[in-house]
Amino acid sequence: MSQPNILFIMTDQQRWDAMSCSGSDWLRTPHMDWIAAEGVRFTNCVTTSPVCIPARVTLASGQYPHTTGVWNNCTYTLAPETPTWMAAIRDAGYRTSLFGKTHLHPHGSDDLRDQEHLLHAYGLDDVDEIGGPRASARVGSYMTDLWQKKGQWQAYQEDYADRFATKPYVVRPSALPLEDYADCYVGRRAAEYLAAYDREQPWFCWVSFGGPHEPWDTPEPYASRYRPEDMPVPARRFADSATRPSGGIDAAFSRGGAVARSAEDMAACRADYAGNVSLIDDQIGQLLATVEARGELDNTVILFTSDHGELNGDHGLIYKGNFLDGAVRVPLLLRVPGEAGGTVCTSPVELVDVGPTLVELAGGALRTSQEGVSLTPAVADPAAQIREYAISELDHEVMILTERWKLAVNTQGAPYLLFDRVADPEESRNLAGDAEFAKVANELLQFLKPMMIMPVLSLRPAMP
Question: Model pTM?
Answer without folding.
Answer: 0.95
